[in-house]
Amino acid sequence: MLILRDIFLFSGFSFATFGSSLTLAEKVTYEELKNGDVITVKLDQLLPTQALLSYDREFSNLYRYTQDLKNMYNDLCKVNGGKGVKKWNEDSQPTDSDSYTCKDKPGTHTDALSTVVVGPEEGILYLTQGHHILSTFWDMPNGGTSVPVMVKVTHNLLGSGDDFWPEMNNDHEVWLVNEKGKKIDQGDLPEYIGMKQLKHDKYLSLVYFLKGISYSSPTKKGTTPPYFELNWALALRKYMKVSDYNLNIPDEYAAALAEAATVMVDIPDDEIIGKSKLTAKEMGKFKTVDSKALEALITGDNTNLNHALAYRLAVKEKTTPKRLLDEEAIEKKKQIQKEQKAKDNSEK
């Protein structure tokens, strides 16, 4: 069996298991990886098992990083099982894990780690949990393909050949649905994580923001059902059309969230959600919308929603020609004046 493909190309590559003592010097191969083993890899070694992202979820993180880089290092430490950041400075880099220090030793909190399945061939790792936060690290200006992260092995399917994808499907470790809600083939999965390859699912963004408002994550033995939010997004698109709303306009985004929240709580308790084989009740559906929480999400200055909208607006302004922005501002002003005039007339 070949030694790990990137073991000498990436000096930070290492293995760790809890209860055993695998080390780099032992020249561990993929064949020797067991469930629960923790390995350090670069982001470009990970193949996605879904074709979708909530861009707004990533935008929210990216906005937080622009406000305070400590947030980025805090997330890096959490994702690497180190609880949170302890020390960093202006010379620290996310691509150099030795340039900042976490509160606990990385790998300590294994439940916080993203998970991978060892693929059918040597050197192949499929990411099964962590697509959003790792895509954020991939897409952030000072991140990229070489950001090192610790991941936990959940299955080793090396040598499984033609049985690999059937087994992945059977174990609910792949999501073969596109941004239009249509079924895709495993050959349609992107080659890398990040927004350049994974498509934006607007329903997934609605579901992300509504956690704690119209549903909560049920946990059984400390685990969340596979592709939990993606299943909710698939169910949501049966009952509403997100295309009816312009999500670049805060009021319309708020209206979309209000409709989605109502739709979710109105789904019958015994209806199966998406491809989960679990009922709405088992998937954490609330009986009623938490209207106070929804209002706080929409009106609060420091919410994930407003962070995402602020970042979305900044990206739009950066990429849109000034002429178009000026024209948009003029049209918006005319619309406000028209509405005010109508209001004045009605009060006479």
Span between termini: 86 Å
Could you give the order of the helices and strands?
EEEEHHEEEEHEHEHHHHHH
Kindly identify the CATH topology of the domain at 1-200.
Conserved hypothetical protein from pyrococcus furiosus pfu- 392566-001, ParB domain
Number of distinct helices: 10
Outline the biggest β-sheet: 6 strands, mixed
CATH superfamily of the domain at 1-200: Conserved hypothetical protein from pyrococcus furiosus pfu- 392566-001, ParB domain
Q: What is the mean pLDDT?
A: 86
Lateral strand order in the biggest sheet: 1-2-9-7-8-3
Oligomer: single chain
User: Rg, please?
Assistant: 22 Å
Q: Structural class, from helix and strand content?
A: alpha/beta
Report the portion of residues in β strands: 5-15%
Instruction: Flag low-confidence runs.
Output: 1-27
- Amount of helix: 25-40%
Q: Report the CATH architecture of the domain at 1-200.
A: Alpha-Beta Complex
* Apparent shape: globular
